[in-house]
Structure formats: C-alpha cells, structure tokens
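User:
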Amino acid sequence: MANKKLHFLITAGGTREYIDPVRFISNASSGQMGIALARAALQAGHTVTLITAPTALKPPKEAQIIAVQTSEQMFCAVKDVFSDCDILIMAAAVSDYKPAKTSPFKLKKQQNELVLHLVPTRDILAWAGRHKQPTQRVVGFALEDRDLFANAEEKLRKKHLDMIVANAPTAIGANASVLHVKTPDSEWQTLPWADKIRHADELIKMIEYLSRKATNNP
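Assistant: Predicted structure:
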C-alpha cells in the first residue's frame, strides 16, 4: 500500500542567544541533518515545513521555510505550525541556556570581568511531547558524550517522544556518523557509519512506519 502523504515539521541548525547585537552564544551545528531530513521527506512525496536557525547550507526550495535565530523564535514557530503537522522532527541544536538580559548596545571591552547570567531556554521538545495528538509523532535527537543510551532513553521517556535518535558529539558538523534509534516499544537499533543523506533516508522510512502504526495502517 502506498504511503500516506504526511506533513513533516522539521527543525535544523543551531540557535543563537544574543549577548548584545553582535555577540551571541551558539553551538557547532551545521544544520546538515535537518536539511537532509527535509530533502528525504520531500523525495518520499511528503510536504515539509522547515524551521531553520542560521546555517550556511541551502534549504530545499520545495519546503516551506521559516527562518529563525533564537530558541524563543524557534519555539514560537514550532508552536504556530505544530497543530497542522503529522510529524515533528527536532533535529535543530537548540541552546539550553540564554543570557538573562540582552544588551541593546554593543558591550565595550573593559578591564573588569564580564559575568553573564544565563537562564534556561524553553524546552521545545518537551512542550511538543505534552501537546501532541494521538496520531501525531514527535522525534527527538540526543547528543550525548556520556552514558549515551541511558541518557537518550531517559529523554525519550520523560519528554513523551515517539522516537529518539542518539549520537556522539563527533557527529556535530560532520558529514557522516553512527546513529542509534529507539522507540518506546523497541530495542536500540544502530544505523552504521554513513553520510547524513543516507541516514536521513533511513530515518524517514522508519518514521513513516511509526505514522502508519498510529493510524492502524501498518
């Protein structure tokens, strides 16, 4: 039976949390995985909304693109589109902390130390896990440098996800990696070393199967 056409909401890139108008806290995410997933979903015949933080990569023109910079902007964009999607894939590297205050002016260098007060950002993935409908599926990523399987499985459970994709820090910014995938009712499955385009194709197939199970059409 042909796959049902789905609406994928995919996030990509690394968010920026501004200290002042020209300085920000960010991470090394290239956005490769999120953009590869968007292309794979489009090639499989689905529609895609891609929410992308700053990246040097060109997103697929067939997707609806929403450009954001900060974690708060990404949260608002996800919240606006979430009810209309079948699948959310949070492939973006969203900052865990942000400056409590952003200076409206460029900070001048002084002799004294500059101490930043950081506060937690909103947990977009946990919000989606709490608000999803029975037929929606939420997929998260876990980048772990210690206790990868235990920490990723805890994230899967606590955030009410339908799938977790775990990898090591060496994957960030790299063209290829090893991925480990788990759902609440499955054992860990390893996708061996491959480029992110191949991994994206495999993940979309796995997510399509999850969606068919949700609608009792495996």
